[in-house]
Amino acid sequence: MNHEKGNPPIISGENIVKTFGDTKVLNEINIEIYDGDFTVIMGTSGSGKSTLLYCLSGMEQATGGTIHCGDQAVTGASEKELTKLRANKFGFVFQKTHLVSNLTLYENIVMAGLIGSGLSEKDIRERARRLAAQMNLQDAVDRLPSQVSGGEAQRAAVARAVMGNPAILFADEPTGALNKANTKEVLNLFTSLHEKGQTILLVTHDKEAALRGNRILYIEDGRVISELVLSEYGKDDDIREKKLGAWLEGLGW
Ligand code: ADP
Ligand code: MG
C-alpha cells in the first residue's frame, strides 16, 4: 500500500474544478493516486465520479486546477502530449467494451498492442495470447464480440487495456452492465492484476466492486468528503466488508 510509504503519487490533482454551464460538478478536488494502489472512487449517481476520472486521465479538460502524471502536466497538455500519455501510460475500461465488432477478441487485444506497446508484432501476439490465457479466455478468444458472453467481452477489454503495460488502469463502472457471475469474474481479474502490481483507479457505485480496493474515496457535491483505507482483498474480507459497510452507512449510503 504505497500511499502509506510516502512515495510520490502517479497522478496528483490540485483544486480540480469542472463546470458544465452553470453546474460545478467538481469543486476544487484534491486527489493523489499512488503507485501500486487499487484506489476506488465511490459516490451516488451523478456525483461526478466519471467526470473526475475523465479529467484525471486527460479525456476531458478540467475547467480549473492542475493535474500531473509524474512530470507530465495533464492540464494544459497539447492533444499530441495527451495522445502519447493515453497510449503509453494509461489503460481504460468502461461499462461498454468498445471492442471492434468484426475482429475476434484476440485481434482486438493484438490491435491495442500494435498501437501502444512499442513491441515487435511477434512479441505482441505472444503477449496477447498470454493475457488471454491469464484472463481465462482460451475458449472465447477466437470468436467475435457478438459470439461471447458479456463477462468474456469485458475480460477481453481489460486485456486490451493492459496490453501496453499502463502505469495506471482507469476503469469506469466496468461491471455496470454485467450479471452477478460475470461481475465476479471481472472483479477477480482486477484483483489478480492488482496483486501483480497493477495500479488501478476504479469508479463504481457497487459495494462488491469497491471491496476489491485498498483505498476508497467518497465524492459528494463535487468534493472528496471521506477516505477509507482497507487492507488488501483476499484476507479478513468479512472484517473489510464490515468496515466498508459501516463507513458507507456513516456517509448516508
Ligand atoms: P457519475 O459518474 O458520478 O454518475 P458524472 O460525472 O457522469 O456522474 O456526472 C456528474 C454531473 O455532471 C451530472 O449531473 C451530469 O449530468 C453532469 N454532466 C456530466 N457530463 C456532462 C456533460 N458533458 N455536459 C453537461 N453535464 C454533464
Ligand atoms: Mg459515471
What does this structure look like?
This protein is an alpha/beta fold and 253 residues long. The chain is 36% helix and 25% strand. The protein has eight helices and ten strands. The strands form two sheets. A six-stranded mixed β-sheet has the order 6-7-8-3-9-10, with helices on both faces. Strands 2-1-4-5 form a four-stranded antiparallel β-sheet, covered by helices on one side. Strand 1 and strand 2 form a beta hairpin. Helix 3 packs across helix 4. The mean pLDDT is 94.
Label this structure with key terms.
alpha/beta; 253 residues; globular; four-stranded antiparallel sheet; six-stranded mixed sheet; binds magnesium ion; binds adenosine-5'-diphosphate
- Quantity of strands, as a count: 10
Measure the end-to-end span: 26 Å
Count of helical regions: 8
Low-confidence spans: none
Largest sheet: 6 strands, mixed
What does the overall shape look like? Answer: globular
Radius of gyration over all CA atoms, rounded: 18 Å
**Average pLDDT figure:** 94
- Strand order of the biggest β-sheet: 6-7-8-3-9-10
Oligomer: single chain
Helix content: 25-40%
Secondary-structure element order, N to C: EEEHEEHEHHHEHEHEEH
| Approximate strand percentage | 15-25%
What ligands are attached or bound here? Answer: adenosine-5'-diphosphate, magnesium ion
- Class by alpha and beta content: alpha/beta
